[in-house]
């Protein structure tokens, strides 16, 4: 290869004749190849296909009548150079048109009028119609002077001239990067205006060919033409309206379609009423009658882009004005949202399987995904927000983002991907001016390279230009599909579409009446909350205005709508600066639905939520095949909590961190409880695991912070009561014992003093005032109770239990479990107390009698004054104490012989007793049902009231809320829940009386 040939190859010219052609054209920097590439050659090199551009340029130069002027312009006019060479290397069809009409090169220069300027007048003049006269199709309209084949040829040439100018300006920045880039939105709008002009010219010709007065006819553009977003090559969808709609206007409409079809583009009237089977032309009343009685959902979606473009302007405007109310009320139709979604799925089903991954328009992640999502959101929310009523996809998407119906980031990403896909579509169609939406096949490297260069892509250092195109296509298709699924299948859409139009934007009078009818005890107070949430012109207020009609419907189905709305206001105000909060409620339908159920039922949830808002994200619908985010492994949660707290060096910061993480987990568990995601056993285990992790982490931080050299003692924390049995509720204290052991020769007194300091510090830090449910570490079950020392050595415990232990202490030790501190010391403590709590020979009758006596005294003395023994969850008949004492009596009597009874769990103890034959299966089930019912009810009281309580409400909304928290219908009769509770605990009590009391 010669040196010149090598230089040409680097410029992208590979054909054998390239060197001689360039030399003949005189496109080098000087007069000879050795003088290098000048501006023309560099523009040629940047053309999408330099060889193609050079061949076309050679033909064009031979055809231009004023070669000297052409050559001068090419050398001196950067705009002309960029437009011409990019066009010649991009479109064989437009290059052929320019070569056929070589004088048109003047229209590509910098001094020529910009594209689109006077395009309508140019097309009308081309067929001899008066651009300034009344439009054809109206009374007294101006017909064309050309008819037949002559008119069609003139219109075709004029139309292709305008497309040539627009395409050259669109491509100019490819050949000369310094030139401005035409936005794809502007190109599409100019093409739509050009199509409208062509229809006007075709109508003028059709009127001239009509021998009699055809009456009034208006041409309504639909689809992309109506939306001002047409492609270079596309069918133009239209609907015809006429007065009268007779044979003459029908013949006129048919001629318009034929003339425009032969000259410019295919005209498609299949979007008319009844489609292909319907009459081509209808009167305005005929259209309205059909749309009101027979139209399907897709027809209203199509009407969203209806725009008069030709013919009688008054008739066209009347049509647009008449159908608009029908369009913007269409979403109130039954199954509207589902119909639109089903239609999109049907479109995808008709794509050839081998084209799915290359289909820019109809495939997954293609243009239709953007358009369908935007149109659905427009039709649902545009009923009340006129700013959304643009027929343009990009303008509507911007309005949706501005109004808060779509997240700003989502809207920007969707718009960017849509522009990218439209750019590829435009470039593909320009190549041969054919209608196509299909990317070249993956192995068609030449065409892929041409497309990438035509779309202004360049290698990025890691990939060649084909690789860049493939990556960009994959990225944008994936992004569009993800956002389409997020927006198009948003559950909130269906709810909004079903609301009466007057409730989507609430007037005060209507709101008060509706709130009262929906069950608000104080409609005026609720209205005050609504004003506070929706006042102003902020984006948040706009989103609230969209959300609240739906949220109010959900709240109305909750037990406490008044408290729920107040809670929602508190949460919204607390999270006002949290950017994702309202977006999450808007985009994730289940989050909004679940949140309203929680706020309208529980006082505890909103208190926790304002300080742990991140839990809201866990309310989203789980992905297919995945577990609900509200379910988590307690062991993993505990490990994460301990690791997080361990990173804090300051004990106060460590305690605060532990409380914060406990708050998060308590809220997660509360949500899972109220939503029926977690069972009662899972709830107890989760809450207990969190409490244990908090104790462990706080103890470790306190021990780490105490100065003075090596500690003189080991310290272990023994969980007792519900903590030891892993059966904690939301408001449970942590019953513990502290046991220590001297190390390295330290004296017992020194060890106890150190351990007591640590234990008191742990209790104090955890009990520090904070708005969360209290973290009380209760050591009253220690030997000698409150009057005894807080901490004892292991040997001290051994001596005490050997000499002074009473039956109730042995019973209390049945729930003992090492939960924190030195693990070996904890194990040895449990081993030491095993003979006490699991006596080898059981207990004698006197001890049984004593335990029964203590139980009777507890029931009599500790039941609060005025409490209802049938509905007290702890000390009531068949409640928690009844079942737990029964299990513990069986353990004291038989655990020495039956190892399976040696468990701290009540339910496991019942199962073991049943398997050992100590209880019948029926009795065990009755006791388990009573314990489970009482535990759930006790938790429900805490969730509903926000504070611990053992007594079920007697009536009213609180009882209804407790029943709802127990998964009973929120709008049902709470008496059913009370009956179930009493029946279940009554049966459990009957077993207690036989097994525990021996009656």
TrEMBL record:
Reaction it catalyzes: [glutamine synthetase]-L-tyrosine + ATP = [glutamine synthetase]-O(4)-(5'-adenylyl)-L-tyrosine + diphosphate; [glutamine synthetase]-O(4)-(5'-adenylyl)-L-tyrosine + phosphate = [glutamine synthetase]-L-tyrosine + ADP
Keywords of the record: ATP-binding, Magnesium, Multifunctional enzyme, Nucleotide-binding, Nucleotidyltransferase, Transferase
Domain PII-uridylyltransferase/Glutamine-synthetase adenylyltransferase: 342-488, 854-996
Region feature Adenylyl transferase, mapped onto this chain: 500-999
Superkingdom of source: Bacteria
EC number: 2.7.7.89, 2.7.7.42
Cofactor(s) needed by this chain: Mg(2+)
Keyword Lipoprotein: no
CDD domains to which the protein is assigned, alphabetical: NT_GlnE_GlnD_like (cd05401)
Recorded GO MF terms: [glutamate-ammonia-ligase] adenylyltransferase activity; [glutamine synthetase]-adenylyl-L-tyrosine phosphorylase activity
Renumbered residue ranges of the record's region Adenylyl removase: 1-492
Domain Glutamate-ammonia ligase adenylyltransferase repeated: start-end pairs: 84-320, 593-831
Family as reported in the entry's similarity comment: Belongs to the GlnE family.
PANTHER family, sorted: BIFUNCTIONAL GLUTAMINE SYNTHETASE ADENYLYLTRANSFERASE_ADENYLYL-REMOVING ENZYME, GLUTAMINE SYNTHETASE ADENYLYLTRANSFERASE
Function summary: Involved in the regulation of glutamine synthetase GlnA, a key enzyme in the process to assimilate ammonia. When cellular nitrogen levels are high, the C-terminal adenylyl transferase (AT) inactivates GlnA by covalent transfer of an adenylyl group from ATP to specific tyrosine residue of GlnA, thus reducing its activity. Conversely, when nitrogen levels are low, the N-terminal adenylyl removase (AR) activates GlnA by removing the adenylyl group by phosphorolysis, increasing its activity.
Official protein name in the record: Bifunctional glutamine synthetase adenylyltransferase/adenylyl-removing enzyme
């Amino acid at each position: 290869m010669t040196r010149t040939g090598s230089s040409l190859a680097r410029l992208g010219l590979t054909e054998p004749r390239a060197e001689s052609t360039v030399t003949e054209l005189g496109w080098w920097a000087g007069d000879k190849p050795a003088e290098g590439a000048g501006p023309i050659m560099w523009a040629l090199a940047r053309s999408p296909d330099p060889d193609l551009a050079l061949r076309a340029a050679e033909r064009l130069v031979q055809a231009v009548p004023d070669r000297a002027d052409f050559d001068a312009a090419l050398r001196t006019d950067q705009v002309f150079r960029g437009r011409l060479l990019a066009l010649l290397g991009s479109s064989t069809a437009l290059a052929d048109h320019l070569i056929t009409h070589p004088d048109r090169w003047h229209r590509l220069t910098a001094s020529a009028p910009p594209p689109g300027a006077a395009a309508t007048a140019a097309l009308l003049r081309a067929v001899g119609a008066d651009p300034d006269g009344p439009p054809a199709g109206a009374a007294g309209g101006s017909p064309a002077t050309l008819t037949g084949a002559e008119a069609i040829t003139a219109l075709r040439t004029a139309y292709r001239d305008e497309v040539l100018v627009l395409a050259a300006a669109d491509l100019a920045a490819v050949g000369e990067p310094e030139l401005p880039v035409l936005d794809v939105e502007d190109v599409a709008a100019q093409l739509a205006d050009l199509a409208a002009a062509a229809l006007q010219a075709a109508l003028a010709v059709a009127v001239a060919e009509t021998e009699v007065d055809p009456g009034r006819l208006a041409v309504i553009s639909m689809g992309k033409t109506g939306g001002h977003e047409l492609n270079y090559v596309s069918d133009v969808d239209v609907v015809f309206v006429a007065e009268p709609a007779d044979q003459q206007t029908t013949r006129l409409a048919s001629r318009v379609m034929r003339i425009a079809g032969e000259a410019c583009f295919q005209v498609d009237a299949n979007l008319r009423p009844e489609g292909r089977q319907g009459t081509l032309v209808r009167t305005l009343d005929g259209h309205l009658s059909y749309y009101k009685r027979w139209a399907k959902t897709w027809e209203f979606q199509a009407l969203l882009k209806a725009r008069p473009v030709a013919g009688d302007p008054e008739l066209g405007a009347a049509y647009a004005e008449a159908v608009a109310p029908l369009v913007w009320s269409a979403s109130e139709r039954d199954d509207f949202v589902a119909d639109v979604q089903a239609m999109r799925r049907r479109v995808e089903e008709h794509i050839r399987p081998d084209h799915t991954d290359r289909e820019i328009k109809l495939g997954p992640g293609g243009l239709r995904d953007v358009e369908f999502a935007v149109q659905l959101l427009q039709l649902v929310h545009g009923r009340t927000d006129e700013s959304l009523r643009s027929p343009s996809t990009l303008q509507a998407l911007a309005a949706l983002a501005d109004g808060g119906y779509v997240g700003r980031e989502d809207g920007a990403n969707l718009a960017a991907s849509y522009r990218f896909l439209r750019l590829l579509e435009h470039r593909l169609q320009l190549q041969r001016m054919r209608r196509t939406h299909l990317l070249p096949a993956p192995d068609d490297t030449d065409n892929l390279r041409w497309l990438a260069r035509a779309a202004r892509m360049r290698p990025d250092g890691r990939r060649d230009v084909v690789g860049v195109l493939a990556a960009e296509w994959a990225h944008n298709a994936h992004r569009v599909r993800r956002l389409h699924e997020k927006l198009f299948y948003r559950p909130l859409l269906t709810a909004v579409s079903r609301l009466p139009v007057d409730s989507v934007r609430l007037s005060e009078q209507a709101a008060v009446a509706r709130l009262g009818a929906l069950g608000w005890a104080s409609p005026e107070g609720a209205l005050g909350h609504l004003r506070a949430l929706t006042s102003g012109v902020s984006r948040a207020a706009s989103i609230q205005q969209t959300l609240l009609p739906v949220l109010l419907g959900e709240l109305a189905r909750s037990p406490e709508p008044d408290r729920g709305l107040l809670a929602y206001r508190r949460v919204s105000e607390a999270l006002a600066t949290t950017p994702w909060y309202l977006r999450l409620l808007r985009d994730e339908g289940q989050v909004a639905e679940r949140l309203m159920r929680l706020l309208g039922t529980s006082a505890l949830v909103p208190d926790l939520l304002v300080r742990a808002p991140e839990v809201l994200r866990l309310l989203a619908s789980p992905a297919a095949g995945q577990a609900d985010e509200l379910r988590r492994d307690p062991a993993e949660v505990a490990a994460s909590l301990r690791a997080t707290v361990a990173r804090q060096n300051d004990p106060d910061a460590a305690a605060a961190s532990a409380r914060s993480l406990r708050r998060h987990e308590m809220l997660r568990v509360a949500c899972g409880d109220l939503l029926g995601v977690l069972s009662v056993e899972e709830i107890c285990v989760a809450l207990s695991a969190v409490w244990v992790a908090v104790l462990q982490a706080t103890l470790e931080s306190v021990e780490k912070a105490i100065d003075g050299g090596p500690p003189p003692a080991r310290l272990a924390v023994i969980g007792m009561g519900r903590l030891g049995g892993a059966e904690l509720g939301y408001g449970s204290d942590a019953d513990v014992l502290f046991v220590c052991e001297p190390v390295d020769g330290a004296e017992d007194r020194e060890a106890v003093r150190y351990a007591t300091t640590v234990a008191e510090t742990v209790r104090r830090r955890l009990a520090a005032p904070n708005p969360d449910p209290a973290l009380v570490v209760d050591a009253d079950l220690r030997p000698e109770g409150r009057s005894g020392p807080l901490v004892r050595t292991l040997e001290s415990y051994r001596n005490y239990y050997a000499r002074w232990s009473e039956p109730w202490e042995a019973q209390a030790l049945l729930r003992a479990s090492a939960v924190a501190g030195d693990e070996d010391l904890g194990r040895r403590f449990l081993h030491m107390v095993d003979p006490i709590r699991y006596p080898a020979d059981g207990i004698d009758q006197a001890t049984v009698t004593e335990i029964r006596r203590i139980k009777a005294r507890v029931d009599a003395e500790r039941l609060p004054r005025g409490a209802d023994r049938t509905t007290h969850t702890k000390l009531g008949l068949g409640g928690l104490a009844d079942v737990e004492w029964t299990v513990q009596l069986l353990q004291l009597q038989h655990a020495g012989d039956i190892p399976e009874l040696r468990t701290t769990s009540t339910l496991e103890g019942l199962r073991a007793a049943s398997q050992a034959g100590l209880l019948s299966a029926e009795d065990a089930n009755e006791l388990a049902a009573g314990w489970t019912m009482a535990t759930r009810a006790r938790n429900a009281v805490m969730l509903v009231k926000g504070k611990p309580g053992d007594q079920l409400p007697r009536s009213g909304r609180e009882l209804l809320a407790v029943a709802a928290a127990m998964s009973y219908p929120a709008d049902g009769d709470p008496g059913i829940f009370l009956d179930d509770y009493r029946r279940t605990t009554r049966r459990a009590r009957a077993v207690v009386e036989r097994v525990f009391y021996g009656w």
